[in-house]
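pasting for ref
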Amino acid sequence: MQRGYSEFMISIVKRLDKLSVFIRWRAFLFLTVLGFFGFIFFLFAVDSYLKDYVEKVGTIINGGHPVNIGSLQSSILRSKLEIKGLEIAHHIHPMKNLAEIDKLHLKFRVGPLFRKKVIIDELTVEGIHYKTDRRTSGGIVLNQQAGSIGPGLIDRVAAGVYSELRDELESNPLRNLRYVKNGIDISTELNKVRSELVTPRKLFELRELLSKLTKHWEQYVWDLPKPSYFTEVGSFLAQVKRQPSMTTELIERADSHRKTLHSEITKVQTSLENLSQEADSFYQAVHRVQDELDRDVDRLKVKLRLPRLDRDDLSSSLFGPKLLNYLERMTYWVDLARRRMPKGSQEGKLKILAQERSSGTSFHFGKIATYPAFLLFKGSVNSQLSEDRSQGKVKGIVTGLTTDPPIYGKPTEFSIEADFPTSHIEGVQAAVTIDHTGDKEGEKIHFSISSFPLEGWNLNDTADLKLELERAIASLSVDLTFDEKVLHGDIHLSAHNIDYSVNCHNKQIEDTLKSILTTQDSLALKATIEGPLDEMKLSASSTFGQVLSSGLRKEFTHQLAAVTDNLRSSLLDLFDPQKRELLARFKELLSKVTGQLQTAHKNLEDLQTNTSKVIARLGSANPADNRAADRGVPRSRRPADSQNF
C-alpha cells in the first residue's frame, strides 16, 4: 500500500512538471495579485477617484465655480452609477447654489470602457432645487485643468474684443450728470486723456507733409532753366536780328532753341499743375485736422463719461450692458461646446475630425458605424414639488449628447420646462439644438420665462448717481441663432409694478429723474443682436428709454451744450495756434514757389514767341526752303544755295 501511494505521488509530480511547460507560474501569481488589488481598488477606491474627477470636470464646465458631490456609488457589474447631493455653485452669489440635485442615476455599457469610450444608455435626474444655501463659498476656484479648455468667448471679451461695443453701451446718459450742473475742470481732465486724442497726431503728420512738400517744391525751382540759358537765347536772337543774311547753322540753332523752349514750358506747366494739386491736398489735410478736432470733442465727452442726450431712445445705453452680460453667459456654453465638439468631414468610410486646441489643430479618425468617445443616448429630468420649498417642478430631456457629433451623425437636442413657485419663477422653457455633425457649426437656443421677480437691477451706479430698478415682476424671451461665427438674436423683456430707487447728490437731478420715473410703472424692451461674435451690434428700444431721453434732454440740453462748447474752446486754444502757424508757413512757401514758376513760365513764353517770329521770318525769306519742308526734306539735306537770303 505504501508503494502504491508513492507511485501515485510520483505520477502527480510528473503531471505538474508537464503543466509547468504550459503555465508560467510567476506570471500567473503576478496576475493574481494584480487582479486582487484591482478588485480592492474597484471595490473601495474607484468611487472616490470618480467623485474627484467629476467634481473637477464639473467645476471647469461651470466656469471655475465649484461643483460638489455628496456621494458617488458605482457598480461595474451592474453597469450603474449613482450620484447624490450634487451642488452647482451660483456664479454671482457665492453662498448660494445655482442648482442642487438630489439624485443622478445613469446606466452605462461596460464593454466600451475597455476601448476608452463612455457610452451611457440612460441618465435620470431627480429632485432639482434652486438657490439653496451653501456651506462653503462658491467663488471661482483656481484650477490648472481649466487651462486645458483654452480661452473662451468670455476670456476674449475680457481681453477687449468687445471694447468698441462696450464703450458704446457704457456711454450711459445718467453718468456724471454733475458735470452738467457743476461744470468740469477741462484743463485737468484734458491732460489725463491728451495722449488718446487724434488731433496732435494729425498735426504731426501735417508738419511731416509740409517738410516733404518743401523739399519737393525746391526741386521744382531747381529744375527751372538757369539764368545763363535765358542770357544765351536772348543773345542769339539779338545776333540773328543783326545778320544781313541767314546761314544753315543759324536756322538749325533757332529751331533747336524753339524745341528746347517748348519742352521747358511744358515742364513748368506740369510743375504748376502738380503744385496746384499738392496744395489742394495739403488744404484737405488741414481740413481733416479740423474734422479730427471736432471728433476729439466727442471722444473727450466719451472719455469723461459726459451724458449723451442726443439720442431719441436711451434703451441701448441703459440696458445694453446687462443684456451683454447675460448673452456672454449663454454664449459661453455655445463656445465651450464648439471647442469640445470637433468639426467633421467624410472620406470614404472614415470620418475625419478636426479639433482646434491652444497648441494647434488635432485630427483623429473614426468609422461611420462606430461609437464616439462619449455618448449619452438619452437623459431625462424629473422633479416634482415637495415639502422642500426650494424644490421645483422640472421636466426635461436631452438626446445625442456626444463629444464627436460627426461620428454619431445626429444633433444634440435639449428641452426643459420648469416652475419654482416658492421663488416666484413660473413658465421656464428652454429648447436647444446643437448641430455639429458636418463641417459647419450651428446652434439654436430658445429660452423664456413667463414670470419672475426682477430685483436690484442697476441702471446706473456711480458716485454721484445711483438709479436702480428695485423690484418688479418681469417676463423674458430670448431666441438666438448661431451660424458659424455669425449671431442673430431677439430679446424681449417686459416688466410691471416697477419700484425705482434714486439717490443723487444733486437735488435738481434727483427730482428730475423721480418726476420722469413716476409715470413709468411698466417696461417693454425689445433688443436685437446681429453680427459675428467679435463684432456684435446691439440695438434696443423701449417707451421707457424714449420718455427718459425726452425728459433729460428737456432739462439739461442747454447746460450740456455749454459744457461741450467749453471742451471745444479748450481744444481750439490748445491746437488751433499750431494749425494756424503751419498754414501760414505753407501759404508763404506756396506763394514763393508759385511766383518763381510763373515768372519762369512768362520768360520762357516770351523767348518762345520771339524765336517763333525769327523762324517765321527765315521761312518767308527762303521759298526753296519752304518747298523742301513741304516735301519733308530735312534741312541738313537741302542744297546749300537754297538756304541763303
